[in-house]
Amino acid sequence: MRKPIVAGNWKMNKTVADAVTLVSDLKLDLADLLGVDIVVCPPFTALKSVVDTVSGSRIYVGAQNMHWEKSGAFTGEISAEMLREIYVHYVILGHSERRQYFGETDEIVNKKTKAAHAANLKPIVCVGETLAEREGGNTFAVIEKQVRGSLNGLTKMELTNTIVAYEPVWAIGTGKTATTAQAQEVHAHIRKLLAAISDDTTAQSVRIQYGGSVKASNAKELFSQPDIDGGLIGGASLEPRSFIEIVKAALK
Ligand code: PGA
Q1: Dihedral, 80, 83, 47, 174 alpha carbons, nearest 10
Q2: In the chain, which end has fewer C-beta atoms inside a 10 angstrom radius, N or C?
């Protein structure tokens, strides 16, 4: 009953010209695809051109970050309203690279998540443990802290419109994918946490993506797990063939 969602996180890649080329190729294959929500998340500079290019297709556009305030003296930042103004519909929040390199805490991610909802943007909220945390047996504790902290105070409706991305930090860009069993185990745990902070019906409605070295070759098996509702794709989203195959792997 949950519609799978596959999002491409392009990170700090692609000129405007390259972004338009990539998304034009995606549009040729995916424009009319039903059954999977498709999102591409280019860098800020390419957002408007990509929005214009996907127009008339079923591909949505997301940003990779935003500030929680509406406007003001925040040099270098962009607000949810600014993203909505150019018809961006999603925003990735709390990616592990932002947590690690830019000091984003659960509290900051929480403020951004609330601001995104207030502006009618759907947040893709990322959580995930490091290798040391996994090896120390702390995966569930770390995930619980991040889920509770990042989603604190959301209404049930806001939770339903939130996408959670489970991305084990040790699997991002490393070629090391979590096994389907490892991924499913954490996804089921996240769903239990969502039920604890809201209720079972709400928890059942939230899409939980897996991210971390998803490729065309492993996507189908990951996406077939009961609590895995699609993926957040980094490296493999930079090339049209692999992203298209991954999107199609999410079709039920
Ligand atoms: P990857 O990145 O697919 O390149 O591992 C995923 C992500 O960081 O969202």
Answers
A1: 20
A2: N
> How many angstroms does the Cα of residue 232 sit away from the middle of ligand 1?
7
Pocket residues for ligand 1 (CB within 6 Å)?
Answer: 9, 167, 172-173, 211-214, 232-236
- Global confidence as pTM: 0.98
3-state secondary structure of 10: coil
Interval 114-118 mean pLDDT: 98
Q: Which residues contact 109 (CB under 8 A, 6 or more apart)?
A: 93, 94, 99, 125, 149, 150
Copy the structure tokens of residue 30.
């995916």
Ligand 1, atom 3, lies closest to the CA of 234
* Cα 227 → chain centroid: 15
C-beta separation of 128 from 95 below 8 A: no
Q: Which helix (H) or strand (E) holds 106?
A: helix 106-118
Atom 9 of ligand 1, residue of closest alpha carbon? 234
Q: Which domains does the chain have, with CATH numbers?
A: 5-249 (3.20.20.70)
Residues forming the active site: 95, 167
What spacing in Å lies between the alpha carbon of 172 and ligand 1's midpoint?
A: 5
Type of residue found at 28: L
**Cα Rg, the chain, nearest whole Å:** 17
Average pLDDT, integer, range 39-67: 97
